[in-house]
Design goal:
Alpha-Beta Plaits; two-stranded antiparallel ribbon; 9 strands; 4Fe4S_Fe-S-bd
């Protein structure tokens, strides 16, 4: 029960950062993404979450928990459901003024894999660090002192203490589980609707690079200067 309450609090804190009740094109605090030229010769692994394709089935979360041996009640990613309806206005589909679920949409809540990661900057032991080969933000369990500085510094509230290991945890794109054996992250493999895309955006031939060149995408709170590597393709409402 305590874990469930804790998870709900973490989820609400993250969603507060969104600055809006749902992700739509050009939401408050988000901006269109154009990749820079710096570090072009190094890999920059990123993930795209396509809100148009996600059904909220939760299989990505289950796959992540299994692949990374996470304790019950804790997850590196969450799926948050929102209604597309506007408060006080009737739904154009069913006519109800209360939440009806006709325009349900889902948001992936997880570590943003920031290029300028505050968790790495504040860690006094070097436990929170960027993997030298891949550039992915991850943890060195042997160095973690459990001080929670990284958790406090994360502007997305996307980190937690793994109670089984007493080490701070975050989504690292399955760096030490799936990527280590040449596979895609567990959530990407499991998604049957192709709502998740993973790859090196510094590789112009990669699918994710080609996708971001033709699709409008947003990042959460770019004003923080953290340069998140998790990109969102939001649902675009047509018409006025």
């Amino acid at each position: 029960m305590e874990d469930a309450v804790s998870e709900n609090i973490e989820r609400r804190r993250f969603l507060k950062c969104l600055g809006a009740s749902s992700l739509i094109l050009a939401p408050l605090g988000c901006s269109s993404v154009k990749e820079g030229e710096s570090d072009a010769n190094k890999p920059h692994y990123a993930m795209v979450f396509d809100q148009n394709k996600c059904t909220g089935c939760g299989e990505c979360k289950e796959a992540c928990n299994l692949a990374n041996n996470l304790p019950e009640g804790k997850s590196r990613l969450l799926m948050e459901q929102h209604s597309g309806g506007l408060e006080g206005q009737s739904c154009p589909h069913c006519g109800k003024t209360t939440e009806c679920g006709c325009e349900r949409k889902f948001v992936r809540v997880s570590c943003q894999q920031c290029k300028n990661a505050p968790c790495v900057t504040v860690c006094p032991t070097g436990a929170a660090h960027r993997d030298e080969k891949t550039g992915i933000v991850t943890m060195d369990a042997a160095k973690c002192a459990g001080c929670k500085y990284c958790i406090a510094a994360c502007p997305y509230d996307a980190r937690f203490i793994n109670k089984e290991t007493d080490v701070a945890d975050n989504c690292d794109f399955c760096l030490n589980s799936k990527l280590a054996i040449g596979e895609l992250p567990a959530c990407v493999q499991k998604c049957r609707y192709d709502a998740l895309i993973f790859g090196d955006i510094n590789d112009p031939t990669s699918y994710i690079s080609k996708l971001l060149r033709v699709k409008d995408s947003v990042r959460i709170k770019p004003g923080f200067g953290t340069e998140p590597s998790l990109r969102y393709i939001p649902i675009v409402k047509l018409g006025v």
